[in-house]
Amino acid sequence: MSELDTPHRITDLQALEALYGSPASASLKKEVDYIHRYYRKLVEASPFVVLATNGPDGLDASPRGDPTGFVRVCDEETLLLADRRGNNRIDSLRNIIHDPRVALLFLIPGVGETLRINGEATISTDPTLLEQFSLQGKLPSTVLIIKAKKVFFQCSRAILRSRLWDPALHVERASLPSTGTILETLSNAEIDGNKYDADLPERVQKTMY
């Protein structure tokens, strides 16, 4: 495939722009460098965001979710995002130490449009901030303070094409390899997949926060 593809690679901006043409006016007008009050409503309606970061080993994208409005808007420039309990790989946080630039993609269940925010993040352990994000009596380890630099909505085409919110297309989890199966295979049976799968529901509930 790589040999067949070589003559068709686009390697410069002039060729790329000639292929795609100019963006429509609306595609440019929707972008601002602050969190407009309408964009704030989209942030506050979202229970799920993908956090993209850049580190010495490359790019990373991490899913984040909590009850609706879990990403808090402090002002037109600032967002707060709690770092909840996870697997302690802390890939995103390691990357932010290396490079503060981040990108956020907000999804809202049932809504076609998504919201994109690019900015810069710092990691805080301020007790006052941590307390604001207490859930089920548990505090996050850190809170990301994100300064927005670029904010705009993404049109609904990707969601509509994928039919992401269509219940008729929901996938039965049992039709895919379980996490235990994956772990047992990749660990050369050092991890007991059946036991991992059996223990997982209770472990997830106990370690949610």
Automatic annotation (TrEMBL):
Gene3D superfamilies referenced in this protein's UniProt entry, alphabetically: Electron Transport, Fmn-binding Protein, Chain A
Sections of the chain in a coiled coil: none
Pfam families registered for this protein in UniProt: PNPOx_N
Name by which UniProt lists this protein: Pyridoxamine 5'-phosphate oxidase family protein
Record domain Pyridoxamine 5'-phosphate oxidase N-terminal: where: 39-155
Highest taxon, organism lineage: Bacteria
Species for this entry: Pollutimonas harenae
